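[job 4417] fold queue: 2 targets
>>> target A
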Amino acid sequence: MNNHTLTPSAINHLKKDKVLRKLIDEIGIIELGIPNTDESFKSLVEIIVGQQLSVKAAKSIISRLQNKFGDSYKPADFSNISLDELREIGISNQKGVYILNLVEKINDNQINFNTFEELNNDEIIDRLITIKGIGVWSAKMFLISVLKRTNVFPLEDLTFTNQLKKLYNINDRNSEKKINELNNSWSPFQTFAAKYLWESKDKKIEFSS
């Protein structure tokens, strides 16, 4: 399913879920945008930079990266940079190692973003998590934000999981069963459903299923 717009058939499918029906009616149509593999490297760097940082702190470091390399930095920009230079920008030693590992894998053609369009989500995740500092959460955020994949269930994301539990009255006794049911019922439009849950948090929409 490669349609990055919430089509009438997708709306009808998701509106079978009464929580999503309310969110769609209140929030309106959400679109994923157009995939941009040219931004793949930049996006992964920013995902690494943003790990365990506030949005404000991450934006500050990303701004310094852009000041040094321009808005669309490439692997070549990092080929001869040292960890000390990255630390001057505000990137920790560990994250610097992660970024340089990413550059190395791209230069060795172990990671080739141009082939990702041919791969399914699980295959892309398997490749990305070979990069130091990229786990399943980071890989799924990449699928959603860069590749605009429409069927990603980001259970590793804390905000998503908290909203899931809150809006669907999920508790320790019923969590596995209910989450599996939602995972199956939202397919093949899981990403849209996830975006509605994230938006419901931002807009402070309060109700229970």
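>>> target B
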Amino acid sequence: MEKISQRIIDYAIWYYLRYYPSQEKLRRKLEEKFWVNSENAKKYWGIFEKEINFILEEKLKNIIQEKKVCFAKINSLINKWKNINYIKNNLRQKLFEKDLIENILIQDFEVWEKSILNFDKIFKQIETLKNKGKSKNYIKQKFIENNFDKEKIENFLEEIFDENDEKEQVKILLEKYNFNKNLDYKEKQKNLEKIVRKGYSFSLVLEVMEE
């Protein structure tokens, strides 16, 4: 094995701790920057596959945490409401191994086969949004925008919301905005628009305002 420049090793450590890539992504980055026929090879002697293996398996063996990094990236995407197909494609594009991705999804996140988060987690997400004053329509659109199954989400919403929930939520919002019937037209209109932007229907808000 050829001597490896400490600059190359330092770069590998910096790049990993800066971006937390997959091991394969880091390998390709090192090939791109320091392969024997690259520009940088003139300065730092260049490296072959054997040298790259040595850097990854010896010099960075206590730094690279492939499973933990993959788990963290999956968790981040789930918290951004991305569906499972999106997550798998995103992680594969980052060159994490397919089996590792699927094992983490099944073992750590208990996902549906060919689908999204399990029922309990979706149910809790919807309840959290409801408790924050979000309307059924807002919640439905939020999930659909992230490629969740429309019919399943609508079924969850019907189960979580009863027919008076949205009306009560509008009342709470109007109280929060210090609404009263004595406000002038302009102020009433502002309150109306604020609540409609949260996904509540114009007619429902108007009905509650006029009670």
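[job 4417] complete. Note on B: The chain is about 70% helix and 0% strand.
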